Amino acid sequence: RERFQSEVDKLISYAVVCLKKQIRILGEKVDYSSGIKWHYDPRNGHEFSRDEFYSQVKITNPDGGWDIKYPWELSRLQHFPRLAFAWKLTGDRKYLDALVSQARDWIRENPVGFGPNWACTMDCAIRAANLAYSFAVAGKEIGGDFASEIACSLIAHGKFIASHLEWSNELTSNHYLADIAGLAVLGCLMEPAVEIAGVWRKFACDELSREIEKQVYPDGWDFEASTAYHRLAMECFLIPAILMERNGEPMGERYRDRLRLMTEFVRDITLPDGSFPLIGDNDSGLFMSLHPRENNDLNYILALSSAYLCEPSLKLDTVPMCPEVMWMMGDVGRGRFEAFEACDRPSIASYPDGGLYCVRSDDGMDFLIFRLGKVGQSGNGGHAHNDQLSVTIWFEGKPLIVDPGSACYTSDPMKRNLYRSTKSHATIALGDCEQNRFVEGNLFTLRQEAFAGDVKIETDDGTVSLSGTMSGYGCFSEDEVKIRRSIVFTMLKRQFEITDELNLSGNASGETARWHFPLAPGLSVVECGPGRLAINSESGEHIADLLYLPGWEFDLDDTVYSPSYGEEIPNMTLQFTPPSQVVEAKFVIKAVEWR
Questions:
Q1: pLDDT in tens, 458-483
Q2: Cβ neighbours of residue 305 under 8 Å, at least 6 residues apart?
Q3: What pLDDT sits at residue 250?
């Protein structure tokens, strides 16, 4: 209350909305005032059966039509901690009564092992963590009878998770990670009152130590090839580590070192406002969401991790103390966070293991990300996009060239593939080919067929040069397609120069190459001369010029951009076509004052 008055007001306002059972789920604001429908997909109007055995629940449909992520997201119960906090902050019993009432309703409507909300262990584990944490905050005030009821539900969750782990000898991903993170939280919060909780905690923490080495590259980027999934993975590694430390059994130094590298990645990719670039899939997934905030805000996890790790290089001037530090770590966390001076983000950051490269101006307001690397998940590519050689660019802290995001998964297979397609990214498309071909009937596989190589970064007196080569392209071999993209960022002039060299041979030699640049929502373009486009802001202000080779054609396509799962905003994509087969292309994006 003393430190975060405005945040407290925001939290209470959110809790009041929860009292009215008006809950926002994946971009959809849903009114449950007549009763929460735990098995309902409000976006597509589909009701799942509560009585169907979990293994028989039809999660997907080849033709789409429903999205099970909506009942799953609601049943993660991530609004429960906020109700518990509202009661703690105000002492008003109505928030605690709402928490108890909704928890009882969920338990009654979701018998163990039946219905959609037991069909994915990951979601059971996230729910268990949020449920356990909420009632740990509530404490003895919940009353004896309900304390027994909630304890029985948590034990049932723990047993179900432990016996349905999403482990495979071939691949463990964010699903298994969430499974063991949920078990770790349950173990930390229920031991020693529940004997088996100690078994869960020890097993889960041993597995977390193994998975952080398997799922996080040595350079610190999570192996999912996605910035959003990096955030989810980091929460799954960080929150159990904090609770383990509070229980007097801290994680080992190797674990902390890898977590520090993950935090450096977050530090390096975020903008001054705390938002992150959309690289790869984004299902807006969180492990525990303790405070209402914008979905793409990463400042909270930077602050929480720097406090946990006691690492000065992770604390930034633009990242203030946040409520999550005190909710998770109390005054100890606050003291740690305030004990060291803030630092600046590095102007250049390289993550070659996964294939992401960042360059920012000295003031941090102009920023470029270059993507060239692995599809992730040890070659499965479940959350990767066909974004090789793509760029995302910010001018003055605002997006200019963007990645499209991910509006949906299984509810619309065609849209799912469109969002992860080559032509939706700021890169080079060859005919109708995909850089990595989609697998028929499988929306979560993208096997590597376009390979990265020879990435270089050079600096020279305010100029940064990046370059890299992609070999291979879908059905075309590495000998048939070689594309080299070079980018020169001149900081003083606020200018990005992109040069592409194409070497197409064999079956690829007849393919038409096209260049795509998706613009941020609200931006528009006006042709103002041969080879010159003016990029204007939503208010009509001329903010940048885009120069291209004379004789090339350009089209402006109406497309959509998804800042978070379930949300779509109209935008425009520039498409450039050369007059004939070319071996070189050049584009310059520059600030207006340097025209």
A1: 999 899 999 999 999 999 999 999 99
A2: 234, 238, 259, 260, 262, 263, 266, 311, 314
A3: 95
Rounded distance, CA 508 to CA 516, Å? 19
Question: In angstroms, what CA-CA distances link 142 with 87, 107, 129, 174, 305?
Answer: 11, 16, 18, 33, 31
Query: CB burial class (10 A; 0-12, 13-18, 19+) of residue 558?
Result: exposed
DSSP 169: S
Residue 115, SS3 per DSSP: coil
**How confident is the model at residue 354, as a pLDDT?**
96
Looking at residue 292, its amino acid is: P
Q: Which two tokens stand for residue 235?
A: 């929460």
Tell me the per-residue pLDDT of 443-456, one tens digit each, with 9 for 90 and over: 999 999 999 998 99
Cα maximum dimension of the chain: 78
Measured CA to CA, the distance from residue 257 to residue 440 in angstroms comes to 40
Cα separation of 437 and 222, whole Å? 23
| Nearest Cα to Cα of residue 289 among 29, 562, 24 | 24
Say how many CA atoms lie within 13 Å of 527 toward its Cβ: 11
Q: How far is CA 245 from the centre of its chain?
A: 26
Determine the Cα angle at 451 with ends 459 and 579, to 5°.
80
Helix or strand or coil: residue 329? helix
Is this structure's pTM higher than 0.85?
Answer: yes
What are the angstrom distances between the C-alpha of 321 and each of 6, 15, 268, 318? 13, 22, 18, 10
- DSSP annotation of 471 reads E
Structure tokens at 310: 């006691």
CA geometry: angle at 573 spanning 567 and 577, to 5°? 155
Distance CA 84, CA 246 (A): 20
Mean pLDDT for the chain overall:
95
Rounded CA-CA distance 573/556 in Å is 6
Alpha carbon of residue 44 to chain centroid: 23
**Token representation of residue 94:** 């109505």
CB-based contact 435:473 (threshold 8 Å): yes
User: What is the share, in percent, of the chain residues with pLDDT greater than 70?
Assistant: 99
Q: Name residue 34's amino acid.
A: S
Residue 163 class from Cβ within 10 Å (0-12 exposed, 13-18 middle, 19+ buried)? exposed
**Given pLDDT bands bounded at 50, 70 and 90, which one contains residue 594?**
low
CA distances from 594 to 264, 465, 487, 515, 535 (A): 33, 19, 18, 24, 14
pLDDT tens digits, 246-267: 999 999 999 999 999 999 999 9
| CA distances, 239 to each of 178, 201, 289 (Å) | 11, 13, 11
Q: How far is CA 61 from the centre of its chain?
A: 25
Residue 486 phi, psi (nearest 5): -120, 135
Which residues fall within 8 angstroms of residue 126, CB to CB, at 6 or more apart? 76, 78, 178, 182, 287, 288
Tokens 């492990």 belong to: 287
pLDDT for 46 = 94
Categorize the per-residue pLDDT at 582 as very low, low, confident or very high, splitting at 50, 70 and 90.
confident
